[in-house]
Amino acid sequence: MRRSYREKILPFVQGPGQYIGREHNSITKDHATVAATVALAFPDAYTIGMSHLGMQIFYHLLNRRTDVAAERVFCPWQDMEALLKKENLPLGTLETFTPVREFDLVCLSLQYELCATNVLTLLDRA
Fold first, then answer.
1. What is the pTM (predicted TM-score) of this model?
2. I need a surface site. Which of 1, 51, 62, 104 has the fewest CB within 10 A?
């Protein structure tokens, strides 16, 4: 999955850095070593979601547990969404590019009504 993103998608989108994670304090765990995997989905762009304190608190609280792996995913911009559709690739998380549909639990945060359509986009691409 990571290779498909790197070769087929990221070179052709605006702001590819928002889809690869690697920020200071990001946490990556082996899914085979935990009891539960959680996708923390924010139905807005990375730039909005990363500044949301609630998202950061949940990410930290879940990942400090040894039995849980929490990863983040944000609603893709239109160019990324179009390429995911074209290449028939699912939306993956920042940390491991794991498709959202493969997580045990998907948690969504709806900050305001205008994000409701982004929830549909996020779920459709997942």
1. 0.87
2. 51
pLDDT digits (tens, 9 = 90+) for 43-86: 998 888 888 999 999 999 999 999 999 999 998 888 888 888 99
Q: What is the pLDDT of residue 1?
A: 60
Concatenated DSSP letters for 18-69?
A: GGT---TT-----GGGSSEEEEEEESS-HHHHTT-HHHHHHHHHHHTSTTEE
How many other C-beta atoms lie within 10 A of the C-beta of residue 54? Answer: 12
Helix (H) or strand (E) holding 106: strand 105-108
Cα distances (Å, whole numbers) of residue 54 to 60, 86, 97, 111, 116: 10, 33, 22, 10, 18
